[in-house]
What does this fold into?
Amino acid sequence: EDIGVFQRIGESTDVVRKEMYDFHDKGGRHIALRPEGTASVARAFVEHRPTVPFKAWYATPSFRYEAPQAGRFRQHHQLGVEAIGSSDPDLDVEVIALLVEFHRAAGVAQFTLRLTSLGDDVCRPAYRALLEAHLATTELCGEHTTRYKDNPLRVFDCKRPECVAATKDAPVQVEHLCEPCTAHYQRVKAGLDALGIAYEEDRRLVRGLDYYTRTTFEFSPVGVDAAQNAIGGGGRYDKLIEELGGPSTPGIGFGVGIERELLAIGDAATPSAIRVFVVDTTGGEHARDLTALLRTHGIAADRAFDQRSLKAQLKAADRAGAAVALIIGPDEATNQTVTVRDLTNGEQRQVPRADVLAELTNQ
Ligand code: HAM
It folds into this structure.
């Protein structure tokens, strides 16, 4: 994307200021690898002007020059949705409910949903001034002493002890919402209550991007002990389309970090891909032909190479997590049979080679 698309989403944020992979291409254009998907969808919306409400989903690689650690990568993938063209709070409920359903269906056993409202351009300026005044009287970390005026809300996100102390008694946006923002927030909460979706109000929640207005939220898995553990987040961005040159159009969406979702799901996310392991102690021709046959019939199969011993091949089958071993030794080769061994309980029987496929599809 043109770098300008992202510069508008948060000049005061780490994502834009420090973490963007940007460069000049061979045509001299200043471009960036996208750090997230929302700004790109908004850019496409402005470019193509689809009818509203416009609902889109996407899966995109996202690049952020962060310090890599568990669950935090320089290239991650986001699954996102964006719903553009309505400021109805019931749409916020719909988007959040969709993400709740997604986490459940994906198998994240337990998660918490944190929710807040960041106000709009009516009530936010006054609140910002209030926060700024508060921060001016307190000690902040080295970075925020000079930068807090760019966006004082960022100080809530800072983990350094001075900033944590400074924001402890700081005013919070939810207590300074204008009447329409309060009504919007109440309706969102009532909608979540009505659908039985549990949430925690987090008055200190700030997101890492600057385009948010009103409803914002973040999901974290319970029991995954990492500082960077949010498995998804999002919110409203009622000014973004306009800031990118489009007509005044509200929007809301979320992004799920696919790698983090998989981490949260744990072992259940990585069942063995291999179902059948072909073990051949007669030289490998049978393994070659049978593995190919199974694969053409859509059965995930593998084999060992280099004419290894029966024991070594069975060990490889085990390591692959296969449910079934098809064993061909000298007897089977002579009789045109295959020994089908159930690797979960060790039971086995010989079947004619011609019946192997039927045998496996009936299982
Ligand atoms: P975000 O919270 O910056 O929001 O990222 C969304 C999700 O992407 C995070 O909750 C996390 O799971 C994952 N994620 C972010 N950075 C990394 C990383 N370095 N390594 C691994 N996973 C990561 C957005 O990007 C917004 N576009 C979401 C949105 C959509 N808001 C409105 N619509």
Observations:
- The chain is about 35% helix and 20% strand.
- The mean pLDDT is 94.
